[in-house]
Design brief:
It is a single chain. By secondary structure, the protein is α+β, with helices and mostly antiparallel strands. It is built from two helices and four strands, in the order E-H-E-E-E-H. A four-stranded mixed sheet has the order 1-2-3-4, with helices on one face. Helix 1 links the parallel strand 1 and strand 2. The chain is elongated.
Length: about 120
């Protein structure tokens, strides 16, 4: 099994090795749950605003077969934002997997009309 590339970028902040390692360790959890992930983009943002409860943000974009999953989370602590973000993405991946499985196990009946009968 090949691992999907993880791209980590920082906006208005310098990325430390500890931040990169934390993000990679958290994203590995997602890769274990879903091996079909093609690429992971994580963007860490520091916003200088008067509202300190939303000062740090984290956004993730998972490239998977079908529509990409994009999730954003903001809080007063960057590590807290990363934790909440990974939990949200994990829930979305599990939900999508469950819906795909239900669709496979309960296909809609197809009415063939006159085409299905022998002449």
């Amino acid at each position: 099994m090949t691992s999907a590339p993880i791209v980590v970028t920082g906006v208005h902040m310098d990325l430390t090795d500890a931040l990169k390692e934390t993000v990679c360790a958290k994203v590995e959890r997602l890769l274990r749950h879903n091996p079909r992930i093609i690429r992971v983009h994580v963007e860490l943002v520091h916003t200088r605003c008067s509202d300190h409860s939303r000062e740090f943000g984290a956004q993730i974009r998972l490239e998977i077969p079908g529509p990409d999953i994009v999730v954003r989370e903001e809080s007063d602590d960057l590590y807290k934002s990363i934790d909440i973000l990974i939990d949200k993405v994990d829930r979305q991946l599990r939900r999508r997997h469950r819906l795909d499985k239900e669709k496979r196990n309960h296909p809609h009946p197809t009415d063939l009309g006159d085409l299905g009968r022998a002449a």
